[in-house]
Amino acid sequence: METICRTKIIDVLKREDFGATVCVKGWVRTHRNSKAVHFIALNDGSTIRNVQIVADAQKFDDDLMKQVTTGACLSVTGELVKSPGAGQSVEVQAHDIVLLGACASDYPMQKKGQSMEYMRTHAHMRLRTNTFGAVFRIRHHMAMAIHRYFHEHGFFYFHTPIITASDCEGAGQMFQVTTKNLYDLKKDAEGKIDYSDDFFGKTTSLTVSGQLEGELGATALGAIYTFGPTFRAENSNTPRHLAEFWMIEPEVAFNDIHDNMDLAEDFIKYCVRWALEHCQDDLAFLNKMIDPTLLDRLQFVVENDFVRLSYTEGIKILEDAVKEGHKFEFPIYWGADLASEHERFLVEQHFKRPVILTDYPKEIKAFYMKMNDDGKTVRAMDVLFPQIGEIIGGSEREENYDKLMSRIEELHIPMKDMWWYLDTRRFGTCPHSGFGLGFERLILFVTGMQNIRDVIPFPRTPKNADF
Ligand code: ATP
Ligand code: MN
Predict the structure, then answer these.
(1) Which ligand is nearest the CA of 338, by number?
(2) Above 50 in pLDDT, residue 228?
């Protein structure tokens, strides 16, 4: 038999050269048969669409066809024919079927309509389903959109370290990195562990953000972005937090907070537009199966301006809502950190569109944010999205050395390993701004999925590091 190069199913479905011999390889989604013919729906992951294989029962061995079960892997060579069936343009009339891999009868993705919880316990196989195939193809396209956006806008992709010795961003939340023998820890007279003989000679952790190093990049290259893994040991079991997630952090010299907001809005709209243009089949599927308002919501975000208002104005709206009888789980007052319910109230019920909230009380924001003239608020900005709450957090940075130092001293932030960060303010400081976008929160928004565990292939959450 002649050997034919494999064609991806996404490409086979576009072909019109009926009569040609083609070879497709993939996994069986369904197999049904009458006495005379077998119909096999084959999927290879290149698209959510399956190609239908039609196999004449007389031509194929019964023992082979018995092994063509859901999940089995096949190589099929046959003739490309115009499909008489509705909803598909082509099918393959099989000449030759090779069973590359039979599928054991306990294949966990056999039944349709399993719960998301069930899928999570089988995360190694859920990738083979329509839903997760769609989600992870979209995830890929979003990564491409992000790189393209920044590349087209003159940003440089800047790699910041994953192992870091700076613990100033909130020490309690970091995962420690050590090669020390935990069964035999030497301690000093005060009972403190001596790290001088550890791998790096000091305490090190996995990064919670690439921002501080990103600022070094921005104040040299002008505009940079990071896109890498980020780790937070926060014990928050929510549908929006992971212990390991991917963050995109642009940082731009000479941008103030208004430029920063313009960038965030333009960037997010570009990404959502990209999804609408490049992920049509997958989005249509998710709109049908997961969330019927998805496409409308994406379109809405692309077409409408985000509302911009101050934290103080936002609090007033929330307090008024409480006065009018709206019940929140957490108390709301000036100075409170907004809970997701508050953010979503502003976005979903009050403004009915994305909101950028600015000028938060300094007490609830990080030390490096630029102080406003009122001495009470800082130039922070959070972008709040429907269904998600906070999708982006950012700020204009404090570029003044003395102001930054006095904030650091006020907060007793351990800066002994941070001299290099302070140097940016000593050697030609400049106004600059940046933000962090949680990649998985963007994917949640774009896919309509409800839980962040379902938009990263192998989620890491408290008490869960399987696969
Ligand atoms: P939140 O208040 O939602 O916990 P945060 O204010 O701690 O977030 P930032 O430090 O501002 O988050 O991080 C920037 C962005 O990273 C957030 O806007 C969010 O999109 C994302 N992010 C933060 N923490 C997580 C997490 N644990 N899992 C997934 N994404 C996260
Ligand atoms: Mn934040």
Answers:
(1) 1
(2) yes
Cα 115 to the chain's mean position, in Å? 21
Q: Is 242 in the pocket of ligand 1 (CB under 6 A)?
A: yes
What pLDDT is recorded for position 459?
Answer: 98
Q: What's the CA-to-centroid distance between 222 and ligand 1, angstroms?
A: 25
Cα–Cα distance for residue pair 316/198, rounded to 1 Å? 51
**Single-letter residue type at 397:** R
DSSP code string of 86-116: TT-SEEEEEEEEEEEE---TT-TT-SSS--H
The continuous run of DSSP H or E covering 294 comes out as helix 294-303
171 pLDDT exceeds 50? no
Radius of gyration in angstroms for the set of CA atoms belonging to the chain, rounded to a whole number: 27
Q: How many CB atoms lie within 10 A of CB 344?
A: 19
Q: What is the pLDDT of residues 305-328, one digit of tens each?
A: 999 999 999 999 999 999 999 999
**Rounded to an integer, what distance in angstroms lies between the CA atom of residue 181 and that of residue 306?**
52
Q: Which of left, alpha, beta for 222 (phi over 0: left; psi -120 to 50: alpha)?
A: left
Residue 86: its pLDDT value, please?
77
Note the pLDDT of residue 168: 62
The whole-angstrom separation of Cα 378 and Cα 132 is: 40
Point out the ligand 1 atom lying closest to the alpha carbon of residue 436. Answer: 14
Element (H, E) at 235: none
Does residue 128 carry a pLDDT above 60? yes
Interstrand relation of 37-43 and 51-56 (parallel, antiparallel or unpaired): antiparallel
